[in-house]
Every structure is written in structure tokens, then in C-alpha cells.
């Protein structure tokens, strides 16, 4: 039997990375030999953080995990996987709406490349309502989000938005 490295990728925009994302990353890193964090690059989309800032912050938040590799790409995820020997897509879900969307994406990705599997991990219950969009929205109202994002992200969010909380 061939000794292959089990590679997976968890892709997203991560603007910003949240404790929910980190929950999925930490758990998925235990399932695979190498877990790539794929930061989607879209020059037409203006996020709160630049692409370079997101990559830097993800590195800071995941530097305690030895089998993580931060990568970037544009185009179809399954094409990136095929070119880089990645066999598995990792997706996180928070609720029923996520399940429906992720199943649709998993079926489409399977249609595009039958050799790539999708593994769907439900987030830990305490993070089931967190999204990057919601974080940015409540921050506009000076909400306390210290339990929702890593400390380094909280500091950068405060700096970016000139908020003191």
C-alpha cells in the first residue's frame, strides 16, 4: 500500500478570522497530515482587512499548529486542489442554512472533480452564531466581541475601526 500524505484545505475569505474558524482549523488539523488554510484572493472585493493583512493575522492565530500551511489562490478551489495534490475540502457549518449551502457546494465540487471529497465539520455550539460579517456589524455599535475573535484580531479590529472596546 502506498504511503500518501493526507492533505486537506479549509478555504475562505477570513475577513476577519473568528474563534469559529479557529475551532474548525484546530479540529481539522488533527484529522490530516497537512491542513492548508486557503485565503481567497478577489481583487474586486473590498474587505475590512487587505489580503496581506488577513494572511498575516491567520498565521499569527495558527502558529501553535504545526501542520498548517497558509496559501492563497483565485479561481476554482477544486482546480487548486488538483494541482496541489489535495484530496479533501474541509467546510464548517453553524446551522441549517449552512448545511444546505455546503451540501450544494459539495455536490458541485464532486461533479467538477470526482477525486476530491468534502468533509463537513459542525462548529462547536458556543461558536454557532459567529460569522465575520456579524462581527463587523456589531463592532459598528461598539459591542464587546472579545469572546468571539482571537485577541490579536480584536486589537486589529479596534485599530482599523478606531474603536476603544
Number of β-strand runs: 5
Main-sheet strand order equals 3-2-1-4-5
What is the gyration radius calculated from CA atoms? 16 Å
Strand content: 15-25%
Count of individual helical segments: 6
Give the H and E element order: EHEHEHEHEHH
| CATH fold annotation | Rossmann fold
How would you characterize the largest beta sheet?
A: 5 strands, parallel
Name the poorly predicted regions.
Answer: none
According to CATH, the homologous superfamily is HUPs
Protein name: Phosphopantetheine adenylyltransferase
Subcellular location: Cytoplasm
InterPro entries: Citrate_lyase_ligase_C, Cyt_trans-like, PPAT, Rossmann-like_a/b/a_fold
Enzyme class: transferase
Q: Describe it for me?
A:
The protein is an alpha/beta fold and 165 residues long. The chain has one domain: HUPs (Rossmann fold, 3-Layer(aba) Sandwich), CATH 3.40.50. 40% of the residues lie in helices and 19% in strands. It contains six helices and five strands, in the order E-H-E-H-E-H-E-H-E-H-H. The chain has helices at 19-29, 51-62, 77-83, 96-112, 132-139, 151-161, and strands at residues 7-12, 34-40, 68-73, 88-93, 117-122. Strands 3-2-1-4-5 form a five-stranded parallel beta sheet, with helices on both faces. Helix 1 links the parallel strand 1 (7-12) and strand 2. The longest helix is centred in the middle third of the chain and has 17 residues, at 96-112. The protein is globular and about 50 Å long.
